[in-house]
Amino acid sequence: AGHCGLQLEFNDTGDHAAFLFNEELGAVIQVHKQHSQSICDTFAKHGITTVTAIGTAVAEQRITIKFSGHVVFNESMTDLHRAWSETSYRMQALRDNPQCAEEQFSAVLDERDPGLSVRLTYKADEDIAAPYISKGIKPRIAILREQGVNSQVEMAAAFARAGFATVDVHMTDLIAGRSKLNDFKGFVACGGFSYGDVLGAGEGWAKSILFHSTTRDQFAEFFNRNDTFALGVCNGCQMMAALKSIIPGTDHWPRFVRNRSEQFEARFSMVEVLNTPSLFFADMQGSQLPVAVSHGEGRAEFINEDQQALCMPQVALRFIDNNGRLAEQYPSNPNGSPLGITAVTSLNGRVTVTMPHPERVFRVVQNSWYPRVHTDRGIDQAADQYSGWMRMFYNARKWVG
């Protein structure tokens, strides 16, 4: 689990079979050597006396077992992991896209893989929105959702902490006239499982707008104002991509279709922020950081290569591997989008759509992994500290002014 090797040592005293191969509860834990005695004392204090040292963690990616001073087992972590994973690979190749299964199996425990990392071109803890928040003015933003959407709470929390007044708005509110987009400075179409996440759910959401003349006019008017912004995430990304006929400067956007793996993908994937006019990614270009991915239809599909080439200046995020290189193979590229494309923006930068979920990782504690930061107290980052993704929401507040 720690991407390190192990040297295990046993001697010919005691019943090792009973100790190592039994059906009682047990655990292997790694501690600093200087703390090992205090750990054993703590266990003993609570009546757990069957605690013993079994070996040492080492940098070399190998598992070595010695018995009475003789090496009885010596294998590489890569070979062991591949052997362990082969059954899953064989099943995956039958069930899913076999090429994706092969690509994932080939990448199993690559010794050259440095793992996840965060490389920011800005300071994650810099609150660039503070001067605007201090004015006491909270611009209204509609947290837009449809039946089945489930990310609206995290999204509202992120924008609220960036200084917005967040308002829960359901599509039925707009259609029935209980809410109007003209009353808001911005809106965000949230993700989750709209319409139960059936195939084409995002496009179905878009059609509820395009085929309802009053609602369509309301969205078109909003997009054509010069003082508004909009964000679409996951299902919201699919939906807004299907609205490009009424969003200025989005003629070359792709549509988002079924993942190449033919499966729903829930991962923590590395992306790179590219240089675009997007107000959300201002001053973030060149940054590389992981983000939550959770979709079944996230593959960017273009009409032809010409459309893809014309869209490239508007690509805001792309998948990369753990070495920072463009990812086109699975699973570093979880949906199979060409050139790793996973977020695009309008030509004026006011409308951005992204398949990954930055709102699900804007706080450090939401991240399944984050870099350790040692302070003068010798502890990790504070539980309430923001990750690099919070800058997106600060950027929106700064843009409003």
Features:
four-stranded mixed β-sheet; 12 helices; 401 residues; nine-stranded mixed β-sheet; alpha/beta
Write the layout of secondary structure elements.
Elements: E1 5-10, H1 16-20, H2 36-45, E2 55-58, E3 62-67, E4 70-76, H3 77-95, H4 98-106, H5 130-133, E5 140-145, H6 152-161, E6 165-170, H7 171-176, E7 186-189, H8 201-210, H9 213-224, E8 229-233, H10 235-241, E9 255-257, E10 265-273, E11 288-295, E12 299-301, H11 305-311, E13 315-319, E14 341-345, E15 351-354, H12 390-400
Task: Characterise this structure.
This protein has 401 residues and is an alpha/beta fold. It is built from 12 helices and 15 strands. The protein has helices at residues 16-20, 36-45, 77-95, 98-106, 130-133, 152-161, 171-176, 201-210, 213-224, 235-241, 305-311, 390-400; strands at residues 5-10, 55-58, 62-67, 70-76, 140-145, 165-170, 186-189, 229-233, 255-257, 265-273, 288-295, 299-301, 315-319, 341-345, 351-354. Strand 3 (62-67) and strand 4 form a beta hairpin. Helix 3 packs antiparallel against helix 4 (98-106). The longest helix has 19 residues, at 77-95. The radius of gyration is 25 Å and the shape is elongated. Mean pLDDT is 91; it is low at 374-379.
Summarize the structure.
The chain is α/β, with parallel strands linked by helices.
Question: For the report, how would you describe the main beta sheet?
Answer: 9 strands, mixed
**Cα radius of gyration in angstroms:** 25 Å
Which strand-content bin applies to the residues?
15-25%
- Helix-strand category: alpha/beta
Regarding quaternary structure, what we see is single chain
The span between the termini is 46 Å
- If helices are DSSP runs of H or I spanning 4 or more residues, what is the number of helices? 12
Which strand order does the major sheet show?
6-5-7-8-15-14-13-10-11
Low confidence ranges: 374-379
How many runs of DSSP E, i.e. beta strands? 15
Shape: elongated
Instruction: Provide the helix percentage.
Output: 25-40%
Chain-averaged pLDDT: 91
Topology as H/E string? Answer: EHHEEEHHHEHEHEHHEHEEEEHEEEH
